[in-house]
Write a structure and sequence with these properties.
mainly beta; four-stranded antiparallel beta sheet; 16 strands; 6% helix; rod-shaped
């Protein structure tokens, strides 16, 4: 009789398991087919299931399979296989953007916007983030061209990448409307905010002398100049 193995080499990850397949063949009527398994590292059970040790470098483990021949002669037959245990992969900690903090700097229709993307510990995101901004108050002329865009591109949408700390600073164009809203989000996430910006404060309309009709016409003309009518 002899011990026959299915494979001479196996590969298993650190701490993983694998079945070592072997059998006793060419047995006589009085031979015992029982196999004994042993490993110089890790552990292996009676069925040949090998449990790999946890290793930091690739390690070869020798597994011995022995058949105890209890028939004539009492011979001991064995085979060996090599199990390569692959080192445990070190996983990098993943920092995920948790908060979007936009702030407006300026007044009277002239602003800059700073954006900070932070993780759950309120530190910098630790990586670059794609920021998308939208000009909600953008208008178009009769040719479909934007006429009052305040984003750097002058269009409805503007995209820019933060630095490696998740920080971004953008200068906006000046506007004269009472308010303008800028929509800000981190691309590919649910982080979404909106900033409302105050326009320039116009001087009060001074009263005029004469009849109430003259005053009405004066106020109407001023409002038309300011785009209120």
């Amino acid at each position: 009789m002899r011990v026959e193995v299915v494979a001479r080499n196996y590969t298993v990850p650190s701490g993983g398991t694998v079945m070592i397949q072997a059998d006793a063949v060419d047995c006589g009527p009085n031979d015992n087919r029982w196999l004994q398994f042993a490993a110089n590292h890790g552990s292996i059970d009676k069925q040949g299931v090998f449990k790999a040790p946890v290793v930091k470098v690739d390690t070869d483990v020798t597994v011995t399979i022995k058949s105890v021949h209890r028939g004539v002669g009492g011979a001991n037959l064995l085979e060996t296989v090599i199990v390569t245990v692959k080192k445990e992969e070190v996983k990098k900690a993943v920092r995920r953007a948790e908060r979007l903090e936009p702030r407006a700097h300026g007044k009277d229709g002239q602003y800059s916007i700073s954006v900070q993307v932070t993780d759950k510990k309120d530190g910098g995101a630790g990586y670059k983030c794609d920021i998308e901004m939208f000009d909600n108050g953008l208008k178009f002329d009769e040719h479909g061209q934007p006429v009052n865009g305040i984003l750097p591109s002058g269009n409805r949408e503007y995209k820019k990448v933060t630095n490696t700390k998740g920080f971004l600073f953008v200068d906006l164009k000046k506007f004269t409307e009472k308010t303008r809203a800028i929509h800000i989000r981190v691309a590919g996430s649910e982080l979404d905010r909106e900033l409302t910006l105050e326009g320039p404060k116009l001087p009060k309309i001074k009263p005029t002398t004469g009849s109430w009709m003259n005053h009405y016409r004066h106020v109407k003309a001023e409002l038309q100049k300011r785009g209120k009518l």
